[in-house]
Design goal:
Among the domains are: 4-10 and 30-66 and 83-99 and 220-415, no CATH class; 417-502, no CATH class; 584-644, no CATH class. Helices cover 36% and strands 15% of the residues. The chain is built from 22 helices and 17 strands. It has a five-stranded antiparallel β-sheet. The protein has a three-stranded antiparallel β-sheet with strand order 5-4-6, with no helix packed on it. It has helices at 31-45, 47-61, 82-98, 156-161, 166-170, 191-209, 212-226, 291-296, 305-314, 324-327, 350-355, 362-365, 413-416, 418-438, 484-502, 521-531, 533-561, 584-598, 609-619, 624-627, 631-641, 694-706, and strands spanning 4-9, 12-17, 106-110, 121-123, 176-178, 187-189, 228-241, 253-263, 268-270, 282-289, 339-349, 369-377, 380-386, 396-400, 441-445, 475-479, 571-575.
């Protein structure tokens, strides 16, 4: 056996070849059976789940399985694909909810700081410069009467420590004050918020580069159909960007990105004793690779090139599972030109690693188990590396559509309506067979009354030669009753049961003929809001089991491997999928109502108008970054709009709706209230002139009341 050694590079520990010779696996024979044994246990545990998934897939495609037997009397083979309709409806609702804000539903926010710690500081450039060293920031505790209690045993150093990251970043700036700026010219610094926004932008860029939106949609579809959706990542991969030089030569640019991907539930084999990923000791992913894909693994770190060449030379080894032919419309009899590769992520005994000559660092030998990543193909070890992520976590996320507390895999739309789909198919077949039978005559022939040797087929214009009997007795037809309407009623009842079992009513996916309250616009809105209740739990599962773990994985990835200090801080990842559960129309109406209420001068100082305007844009399915201004832009826009108030009226009269200068605000006509002689004298025929007759005065008053007010551009 060629010499093998452990290579430690950037805190990664892996088994690698020391030369280019073909390497056998005499010293790692214990590891391969260990992985294969766990794979067999996980596969056996999944057997019942695979049967459920097959039935779900057949119902979605409209295919009868081998377990469905038809009698001779059954002529119709119709399949009513209501399962497909409801699955796509649920899938569409989840996609609309998750991508309602035109961005991946993940955000990064600063954690809540403890009482007494400075989180914001402000600086006013128009304030007189303070003496050097005399800044309020030197007292991080704040000021007397600010509500902050002195902790027991506090020292000057402990008070200085309350500054946190602000002390290093802002210590050289003079004139800093604790808290948000109170003057119009002040500038407020929030380092934690800045770091959160930078980290969020970094994560969004990574998700965009890896095509995470497409991967998430594939995962959501399998959630709706099979009950469980799986994603994987993040991993550092090299992505090729097309590029041509000035002479037209293709010179691609390779960039290392954090990639996330969708994993089909059919290729996902989790720990059979776990109910979710937090409890899983290991996970195995099954790959179906071509020679090209297998050779491409040699470009990735810590893969054993010589072993990969040996595996390719030994020939293809892919063994199809029983369910693969059912998933494909074409099932070839010949073998598959592919390789079966198993990717293992999970715990491994340290003693087993030591027994196989894996040089474990001394500080890690104290552990009983270490998390490893192992790749196997054709009984050969392609890669073995300790989990490079800190902390060590299995990089898979599995989200259930409907949580099954006693199984790892959830329950989907197709399984919930499996029985009702069977009933609908049966009643519809009976209705079709009965309609065909009742729509035709059953012909009876008395051959004794006919001339022998005649063709007994019946068609329009047919002539039969009769040799005896009464007319009409030799050939006559019998009509069967039509009872298909009763079968269709049972079909409709089964369809209603499908609505109840799935929580996906038919009007939610375009059913017509809704009666009662559903015939009005407000009624439809009420029904849609009620229907969205069934999807709330599903989206919450996506938040808890998929989005938050994915966001936290990217956050840890950047904290560990990204050296940009501007994105690092005491931050937390928040999943935003459930924020879009409320119907946009209802949310928009509530926001507009709140905006009107907050416009009250007494309440306006307490309202965050910038946030309200941005949320209104989101509710209207608009990008708030493109249609709203920030505070500086809003102030500039307000100054510009002042010029569009309209020119003053002739004679120096104030704008309509405003009292003249010096007039009593309670008497805008200027006719009394201690302001006699001020303002513009009334003209006969206008409102306020006492000489007007009743009819003319009424007409003038009506005209004045119908005059539209001058619009306020800031409202």
């Amino acid at each position: 056996m060629a010499e093998e050694e452990i290579m430690i590079d950037e805190e990664s520990i892996a088994l690698e070849d020391s030369d280019d010779s073909v390497v056998t696996d005499i010293d790692v024979t214990n590891i391969i059976p260990f992985v294969m044994d766990r794979y067999q246990r996980a596969e056996d545990y999944r057997n019942n789940d695979e049967e459920r998934w097959l039935r779900s897939y057949r119902n979605y495609r409209g295919l009868y399985g081998s377990d469905v037997q038809f009698t001779e009397a059954e002529k119709s083979r119709v399949f009513i694909k209501v399962t497909k309709t409801k699955t796509l409806a649920a899938y569409g609702q989840m996609v609309d909810v998750l991508f309602a804000g035109h961005k991946f539903p993940i955000s990064v926010e600063p954690t809540v700081l403890p009482e007494g710690v400075v989180s914001d500081v402000s600086f006013d450039p128009k304030k007189p410069e303070q003496l050097k060293g005399e800044t309020s920031l030197s007292s991080p505790y704040g000021f007397e009467g600010d509500g902050k209690e002195l902790p027991a045993g506090a020292t000057e150093k402990s008070l200085q420590d309350m500054l946190g990251p602000l002390e290093e970043k802002l210590g050289e700036i003079e004139g800093l004050e604790e808290g948000v700026g109170q003057s119009p010219t002040s500038i407020t610094f929030s380092p934690s918020m800045i770091a959160a926004k930078n980290m969020e932008k970094k994560i969004m860029d990574q998700l965009q580069e890896s095509g995470a939106n497409k991967q998430l949609r594939s995962t959501v579809f399998e959630m709706a159909l099979f009950g469980t959706g799986v994603m994987k990542g993040p991993f550092a991969v090299d992505k090729e960007y097309p590029n041509w030089d000035d002479e037209g030569n293709y010179s691609p640019i390779f960039k290392t990105i954090a990639s996330t991907s969708h994993v089909s539930v059919w290729n996902f084999f989790p720990d059979p004793d776990a109910a979710n990923m937090d409890e899983a000791q290991y996970v195995i992913e099954r790959h179906k690779m071509s020679r090209t894909q297998l050779r491409a693994l040699k470009k990735r770190p810590y893969f054993r090139d010589s072993v990969i060449d040996e595996v390719i030379d030994s020939g293809e080894s892919y063994d199809k599972k029983y369910w693969e032919d059912d998933l494909s419309d074409y099932a070839p009899d010949h073998g598959v030109d592919r390789f079966e590769v198993l990717e293992y992520w999970g715990n491994c005994d340290v003693q087993m690693l030591l027994d196989n000559n894996v040089d474990i660092p001394k500080e890690l030998e104290e552990h009983d188990e270490l998390q490893t990543n192992i790749w196997i193909c054709n009984g050969k070890l392609l890669r073995m590396v300790l989990n490079p992520f800190k902390p060590s976590t299995i990089p898979y996320m599995a989200a259930p559509y409907e949580l099954n507390p006693y199984s790892f895999f959830g329950v989907g739309i197709a399984e919930n309506m499996d029985d009702t789909q069977t009933l609908m198919n049966g009643f519809m077949r009976m209705a079709v067979d009965n309609a065909v039978l009742s729509g035709n005559l059953l012909i009876e022939v008395d051959e004794t009354n006919l001339v022998p040797g005649q063709d007994l087929s019946v068609y329009p214009g047919k002539v039969f030669r009769r040799q005896g009997g009464a007319p009409g007795q030799a050939i006559f037809g019998t009509k069967f009753p039509n009872v298909s309407g009763e079968n269709l009623q049972l079909f409709d009842k089964a369809r209603q049961l499908a609505d109840e079992s799935t929580g996906m009513p038919s009007f939610a996916h375009g059913q017509t003929g809704v009666s009662g309250v559903g015939r009005t616009a407000s009624g439809i809105s009420m029904l849609m809001n009620a229907a969205s209740g069934s999807i709330k739990t599903v989206v919450k599962n996506i938040d808890d089991y998929l989005l938050r773990p994915l966001g936290e994985g990217l956050f840890r990835f950047n904290m560990q491997f990204n050296f940009d200090k501007n994105i690092k801080g005491d931050l937390e990842v928040v999943a935003r999928g459930t924020e879009s559960l409320m119907a946009n129309e209802v949310r928009s109406q509530r926001l507009m109502s709140f905006l009107q209420t907050a416009s009250n001068p007494a309440l306006a100082p307490f309202a965050k108008f910038n946030y309200i305007i941005r949320e209104i844009a989101k509710a209207m399915d608009l990008d708030p970054d493109k249609v709203t201004n920030n505070m500086d832009e809003a102030m500039l826009q307000a100054e510009m709009l002042k010029g569009f108030q309209g020119p003053p009226q002739a004679g120096g009269a104030p704008p309509q709706g405003q009292p003249p200068a010096g007039a009593n605000p309670l008497d805008p006509t200027g006719s009394g209230g201690g302001t006699i002689g001020t303002g513009q004298a009334p003209i006969p025929g206008e409102q306020g002139f006492t000489g007007n007759d009743g009819q003319a005065g009424a007409a003038a008053n009506q005209a004045a009341s119908e005059q539209p007010p001058t619009p306020n551009p800031l409202q």
